[in-house]
Amino acid sequence: MTTASSSGGPAPISLFPSAQSWLVPGERPKTILDNLLSRPDATRLVRSTPIQPLYLFIKSLGLADAHDLIAMCLPEQIQGFLDLDVWDKDQLEPSRLSAWLGHLIELPPSRLVTHLRKLDAELLTTFLAPHITVYDLSEEDAPDEAQGMFYATPDRFFLIDIMPASDGDSDRAVLIHRLLEHIYKGDLDLARAIINAARWDAGAATEENAYQFRSGRMADMGFIDFYEALKLYQEVDPRTPVPKKHSIVEHKHPSALDPSEVRSTGPGGFLGTSSGLWSTLMPELATPSSLLAKVSDELPDTEREALLHELLFLANQAMSADRVPLDDLPQTEVTLQRTAGYVLLGLLHRTGSVAGTDAASDEKLRAVETLRSVPLTYLFRLGYSLTLTVRKLAKLLVDSGATTLVPGQSSVSLLTSEEAAMLSALLELRPLYPRALDDAKQSPSLRPFSTLRDLSRAASFVEQLAIRLKLFTIGLGLRHETLRATLDRTMPDASQATWDDVLGTMIANHLLGRPAALVPLSRQDLVPLRALLAGHDQPTLPELVRARCLRLIEDRLHDRVPDEREAHALLGPAQRAFLDRVLGLLATSLHSLPDPLDPASADLVPRLAGLILS
To answer: Average pLDDT, stretch 109-126?
Structure first.
């Protein structure tokens, strides 16, 4: 896979790391290709590489630069590339097929026809028929002038008028001329069959047949109909009986099984264990102490490869359900990792945990038995269903009004940008885990859920946001139902204000000797507030001022919440961290004002973070 790099070019390949593979991690596609071509066994390596990763590598490299690679491929691989690339839904894309044929006609004629024999005749007919008019010279007279360009076949059976492309591709007629010429050089009978098929083309019916043949092969790889693929995301109840894995290979239709397909590194397969895909999709495998690392070590090679077949088949189903374009490399990698994450979640939930000195050994044995007896499809659905429990909690939170005053515009307007990004990730149709929940200092990036601890931390994050609302309404007496009206004409207004602004304003009113209520401040109130930090060099509140603010919150809680345990829950570690953040923001904002602040300058302040101004 590739992602954007600072230099502007494709980033290093990251999906297929392996010490044994020519798809070396950390290298750019062009470098990988150069290193491959310098090896004496390059052709063997390419032909033993599965279709899907090889196709993705070609896309990351760029088709225009892939001629030497394509020249080494087997006919089965070429057929797979065309299945993956030259269709848009059920319509053949002539321009995409032309790009691939442009590489094939550079091969010797004998090699070209070897590849063409593997392709569906209907595919070639669908491509050629709209672009040529065939005259059988034994039955009819040909016109004197061509509508496009004439090609007279060497056997003198046909005169072919190659029409200009309707989509404006001026090179396609030349491509078709060269293609027919090379086919005649390679196989006279094949050339006549192709031309006769194009002459008597059945139109849409031919294209439909080609699409159906292609769809069958794609289904064998997991790329199935969108509505059929959506069944993969059906929720399951963890309390219901678990289905058992059948003895046959479940991820392929029985008629598609090839007895000679022994290894997953064959042309029709996916990725073998030597590809290193395991450690990329499931980073836990890089840690010897992780459950998956232990389980994979326990499985023999044949079982490990079969498991990887099934995993990637699942990922392709997920791509179909998510409508991920086959050549969208970043989204493909995301889907593969999310698929692995769901399976891992389901496995961890089914495995459970036990106490005692033999807990780790028992857990490993149960995980091995689960992978052998339970379909990965079920584990995927179970893992996905577990993430939906967090999403449902997040939706209930939004519906309660704890995160927004303007639900029609935003579901997270009351949160800081960091909190909003994390909650938005949990609200996605396919929830993602915010890395900031592991460490607040991390960049606001996302990854798939993959551990039960991820679920616990995400649920705890949602719970603390719910407690924050209770802190305001039950603990501090804020009337949530009047909040939007109060902020109707303020700066920031109801669509921009955050809980930080609300609490900061209540504390500021208290520091001004007023009731600690949500009453927007006038700009003249900034003058005495700035004076509280007079002579204080650091953007922090003086200790006495800070202690006064903390005492306000604690006293208000004890007055309104008699139950000590409930009061303690409303001001637990997460809410104290929120309070510290608000006090820090208030101090930083006030410290940014001139010292001393005169009334005229105060009137010019447009907005101040952590405060709501009238």
So the answer is: 96
Cα 126 from Cα 91, distance rounded (Å): 10
Question: CA-to-CA distance for 223 and 89, rounded, in angstroms?
Answer: 12
Per-residue model confidence (pLDDT) at position 21: 62
Residue 279 and residue 19: Cα distance in Å, rounded? 12
| CB proximity list for 450: less than 8 A, separation 6 or greater | 282, 284, 340, 341, 344, 345, 433
Domain coordinates of the chain in residue numbers?
A: 74-130+168-220, 226-384, 481-602
> 295 Cβ partners below 8 Å, 6+ apart?
364, 367, 368, 371
Predicted confidence at residue 536, as pLDDT, reads: 80
User: Do residues 332 and 438 touch, judged by C-beta distance below 8 A?
Assistant: no
Would you give the DSSP letter of residue 132?
E
Residue 36's CB is within 10 A of a number of other CB atoms, namely 20
Burial class of residue 515, CB neighbours in 10 A (0-12, 13-18, 19+): exposed
Contacts of 176 (CB under 8 A, 6+ apart): 128, 131, 132, 151, 162
358: tokens are 């033999």
CA 13 centroid distance within chain:
17
Cis, bond preceding 594 (omega within 30 deg of 0): no
User: Is the distance from CB of 591 to CB of 533 less than 8 angstroms?
Assistant: yes
Closest by CA to 164, choosing from 156, 155, 176, 173, is 173
Which amino acid is it at 163? Answer: M
Cis peptide before 75 (omega within 30 of 0): no
Rounded distance between C-alpha atoms, residue 131 and residue 111, angstroms: 24
Q: What is the pLDDT of residues 534-544, one digit of tens each?
A: 878 889 999 99
Distance CA 119, CA 586 (A): 69
- Kindly list the distances between the CA atom of residue 255 and the CA atoms of 217, 252, 434, in Å, as whole numbers in the listed order: 11, 8, 43
CA angle 561, 564, 568 (to 5 degrees): 90
Question: d(Cα 521, Cα 509) in Å, to the nearest integer?
Answer: 8
DSSP symbol at 150: E
| C-beta separation of 46 from 66 below 8 A | no
* 416/376 Cα distance (integer angstroms): 39
Which amino acid is present at 546? R
Q: Is 573 exposed, middle or buried (0-12, 13-18, 19+ CB in 10 A)?
A: exposed
Q: Which residues of 45-68 are buried (b: 16+ CB within 10 A; e: fewer)?
A: ebbbbbbbbbbbbbbbbebeebee
Cβ atoms < 10 Å from Cβ of 342: 27
Q: How many CB atoms lie within 10 A of CB 383?
A: 28
Element at 160 (helix H, strand E): strand 158-162
Q: What distance in Å separates the CA atoms of residue 17 and residue 93, rounded to the nearest whole number?
A: 32
Quote the pTM value.
0.75
pLDDT tens, residue by residue, 44-87:
989 988 788 788 889 888 999 999 999 999 999 999 999 999 99
Q: Which of 19-23, 174-178, 272-276, 503-507 has the lowest mean pLDDT?
A: 272-276
Backbone dihedral angles phi then psi of residue 540, each to the nearest 5 degrees: -135, 160
